[in-house]
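As a point of orientation, let us examine one representative protein, giving the amino acid sequence and backbone structure tokens.
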Amino acid sequence: MKKSGILNRHLAGAIAELGHGDTVLVCDAGMPIPPGPRVIDLAFRAGTPSFAEVLDGLLDELVVEGATAAEEIRDANPAAAALLDGHFPWLESVPHDDLKALTATARVVVRTGEARPYANVLLRCGVFF
């Protein structure tokens, strides 16, 4: 068994398969997920695990060269907006409907137990060299 890092075998395996330019959607429990992407559902109960916990864990494992969130996050969920701004000062904002459409392009969707609106971000993988 792994001693540290991400222990969920489905998520660890999905991360290992990602390449440059692949996208990962980290989303709240209410985000509609279209058929197609591999879904890793971590939701246990409302709020667990939180968007922040999952995002921080993923960022320990991924190189990210781009991030996109819904522009509505600024007004509807200032805490999540501040979290994303802290990690991604170059965060791209799009209307929520556009973010939902981009979900279909994600290679992996990681569903958190977050129960606050717009706690969603699409991450574009970079390379470590």
